[in-house]
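Protocol step 4 of 6: record predicted structures for both targets in the notebook before any analysis. Target 1:
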Amino acid sequence: MEYFIILLKAIVGLSILNVWLVNPKKPSKWRGGDAQTITDEFELYGLPSWSVFLIGACKVGLAILLLASIQYPGVEKIAALGLAFFLSGSVLMHFKVKDPLFKSIPAGSFLLLCLAVAILG
């Protein structure tokens, strides 16, 4: 079970870092509406421009903390539940703009994985 939890942490942590640090300006079929970048997506959701940086910093920080929890398990619940909170917001934003359900799959999946880490870890 320990290795399974480590795998979940790696999948979620690396995926969040990929979205926010490697591909924030690249189009994706998972972005809300017709947004091409994270900034476009936040604008579509009606969020202020500064929220991109605040939410991005929180998600990146929590993703790093989740990865660090592989070695330091004392921080795994904080990281997993913190990310679950933000991922819940991501799913809600997709619903807010009436996106097709498939666009919520990554955020919804990572939300469930974070909850699994928080409960099983």
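Target 2:
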Amino acid sequence: MKAFLDEQFLLNSQTAEKLYHEFAKNLPIIDYHCHLSPKEIYENKTFQNITEAWLYGDHYKWRAMRANGIPETHITGDASDYEKFLAWAKTVPMTIGNPLYHWTHLELRRYFDVEELLNEESADIIWKKVNKKLQGDGFGARDFIVKSNVETVVTTDDPVDSLIYHQQLREEGFSVQVLPGFRPDKALDITNDLFIEYVQQLAEVSSIQIESYQDFIKALHLRIDFFHEQGCLISDHAINEMTYEDTTEEEATIIFHKRMSGHPLTEKEKVQFKTHTFIELGQVYAQRGWAMQLHINALRNNNSKMFERLGPDTGYDAMNDEDIAKPLCRVLDRLEQAHALPKTILYSLNPRDNVVISTIAGSFQDGKTPGKMQHGTAWWFNDTKQGMTEQMMALSSIGLISRFIGMLTDSRSFLSYTRHEYFRRLLCDIIGDWVEKGEAPNDLNLLGGMVKGISYENAKQYFQFERANELPHKSKMI
């Protein structure tokens, strides 16, 4: 029987142990998609206590606490931080079998040297021990990033964002590269109640008057130019429901004018606008050499009562089960026909889509860029032992896992980098199992190179973040 979280955690063969400890463990981290705050990174935010660092904004933990019967006052409400921590400590033993149990204790060990298991009995001791460290030097937001051996962080930023903190970090010479990621979801969500207000914001930051659809697209192009000047090399789209409608620019123009005039749109018009605008953006991404991420099949804000009370991103989302194959292929094919399909990373929140995504990615490889079309890593509800394993097995069965760009945190927490360790251990265990079963050669040089590629080197080559290093230390801010 193995000890809990020992050095061989998740490594079930000697080959897996060698691959992890000799090839994966000490590699830098490229976190090419996360929701960390650039402002908090720049200010090297410190935390008054472990609750602030751990529980503020973490809807993974919030969902588990609700399932354990914890009242909302002790999750997002007005209970004290100590009371919220005790509520989480009470919940942790109930999370055995959920990656939260592993992540909780990995974070306590890696960042605070706490070996005790967290529960109601140990909570007060751990609270005092961790908080004492948080009040000392070396436990700010930047410190957690540096201690985690992170090389590059890509945040998630709206086209209207100023990116001032990215520039200030670059001017200051922070040792970790912090780059923006272009997330234009609000620009495509034409039926949102705040769409007209958003267009006005876009006009203001772009310094142009938006009176037509063409002006709207021009403003987005200008923001892409600005983001590129600030080192952006990645876009990201949340596509809760994958749809497609053949649309002309004339039709998109009419739909835009109709919406800006305050008239309601049909469902078909909504899809037409999204399709045409997305194609317009995709072509610009390709021209810029950016990678494009598509996060598909999330069903968001399902509990209307709690959405009205707490807003979005509070733990009331689920997997969607809409069919994605045909509309996704049509979107990608439309870009391919225009010779403007960018490097693309496809994620689905529904693991049912794993094989679908791997086969679609294989349909649009270009024979020039290794792994141009990526089956993205297990995401959100799937970044579990089972979810990561299923995604890697689907990819390896149908595509080239050797070209896989690996893990990201997709997190708002500065303590989440242990997820890269979790992923790397699982990766090494999968490959080690192949060796043990005689399904892969016992060649550590071959397999070690494969592990290094998936853990770090493939992402470095794929995104070419070194291009951002060529930016001037000072540039015009908008």
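Step 5 preliminary note on target 2. Residues 150-470 form a domain with the TIM Barrel fold (CATH 3.20.20.140). Residues 15 and 123 are 37 Å apart (CA to CA).
Proceed to step 6 after PI sign-off.
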